[in-house]
Amino acid sequence: MNASMHAENAATDIAAHLHPFTNLATHPQVGPLVIQRGDGIFVEDDQGRRYLEAMSGLWCASLGFSNQRLAKAGSDALYGLPYYHTFNGRSNPAAIALAEKLLSMAPVPMSKVFFANSGSEANDSAVKLVWYYHNAIGKPGKKKIIARRNAYHGVTVAASSLSGLVPNHRDFDLPIDRILHVDCPHHFRYAEAGESEEDFATRLAGALEQRILDEGPETVGAFIAEPVMGAGGVLVPPATYFDKVQKVLAKYEVLLIADEVICGFGRTGEMFGSTTFGLKPDILTAAKALSSGYVPISAVMVNEKVHAAVAANSGKIGTFGHGFTYSGHPVACAIALETLKVYEDENIVAHVQSLAPQFQQGLQSHASRKYVGEVRGVGLIGAIELYADPAKRTPFDPAQKAGARLAELALAQGLIVRAMGDSVAFCPPLIITAEQIDDMFARFGRAMAVFEETFA
Ligand SMILES: Cc1ncc(COP(=O)(O)O)c(C=O)c1O
Question: Beta-carbon neighbour count of residue 6 at 10 Å?
Fold first, then answer.
């Protein structure tokens, strides 16, 4: 019965569904993995197979897949006020309470919160705010935004342009102009022989400064960074990197946007990655774990410097001409607010801090495996990067799809991890327990053993 249900699901999916980030040419042969329920950190497919979801879906389901408090908050909100908007001064109690709560949690003093529905929309909004801000303060030339190669900031036109991933630009005619990319701070891959993390960070900050000078500081408006680069391969910044980068930004009056879409809400062992790595952003974007992924919602926080200029400018124009039908959606805000309360009630940051050493040790336990080049991570996020010859740092030929093969083998062990190139990422729900961490790495170890026996 399960098999026939799956066959029917697969046929209809192939016939009707255009999948994001999927090879659309091969999808009809490969078919979908249809997930139909979840409990705790596990999900189950339409053939009854259970998987330990070590990626929290797409880095988001931090409270797992069956939190009853969130379900109830959503249902209460739906029965109370299922929809209202926030244009033209309208508001609703959930949006008001959520904005206040986010400001009270922010890693640096923030003044106002703007709501959107996805990380991409939040970053697009941040770009527009940077442009609007610089017009408002009489520096209309300062419009270029600097991002980093291998960054991921989303898929809307501006957010995709900010992303530094070639396949996301190719044939979409992106990036748009005024978006620049500088070096990726991946020490293991890009440091010169013998270069320390600190020296590498100095070199990258120097290159950033040179780029700003080459472009003309009067043309550069903002720099955007994920504290830990997620989809680029879980790249933890090298020591002193953000200190040095921020000194350069301050020198040329370049705003800092922290993309906390993955790092926000406990992932790195602090409530925000900005705290873990010492970022002092003017604008902060958050999404994903804001609602534990249960409903689409994102937030853009701005400091008073940005807000004051934006507010004054909107006064001149007569409106702040930006916003979404679902900005501050009452159901999404109610679920997000409850999510933040659960984080507090369950002391989620302390939980992450207590399990992080075991999690990082579990990753490190694979460091000397035959094909493992680098193991990296912080808090409850990490990755293992495969190399054909780790000692010589020789990568696999991308055509071999080593990372994807390992992720497939993990799936056969009932474990969902994510391959990004040959980096295999782990970002489990924050509610994971010590026993479940052991279970997760035991499953991964079995997959790795098969990989070693059968690959290359
Ligand atoms: C750091 C970061 N920023 C932005 C986004 C885009 O978020 P969304 O997919 O909700 O548009 C993502 C998604 O993975 C992300 O990881």
Answer: 20
